[in-house]
Write a structure and sequence with these properties.
With about 100 residues, this protein is mainly alpha-helical. It is built from 6 helices and no strands. The protein is about 60% helix and about 0% strand.
């Protein structure tokens, strides 16, 4: 589950394994190993991965299936705009 989440979030963000490795100060091989379920990130690294992608560690671990959107620092108007965009996307893709 974790390996799939990391890869899925990386691809959704249009990042390469090298990009993620640089952002987390690890090697590309380490990211590849996480995605292929060869090794697991440490607890500290799991937190860094969650922060990088703006999700909770529970989401990465499959304990919470809904990703969270970090809206800290945004105004109420900006948050409402994001909610409208999300609703528009849901209306266009009812299976979401």
């Amino acid at each position: 589950m974790l390996s799939e989440k990391i890869k899925s979030l990386r691809l959704a963000g249009n990042y390469s394994q090298v990009d993620i490795a640089e952002k987390l100060s690890v090697t590309k091989q380490t990211v590849s190993n996480w995605e292929n379920n060869n090794i697991q990130p440490s607890v500290d690294m799991l937190v860094k991965i969650a922060d990088l992608f703006g999700v909770s560690t529970d989401y990465l671990l499959g304990r919470d299936m809904s990703p969270k959107l970090d809206v800290s620092g945004l105004s109420e108007i900006e948050i409402q705009h994001l909610n409208m965009i999300i609703n528009d996307i849901r209306n266009k893709n009812p299976q979401v």
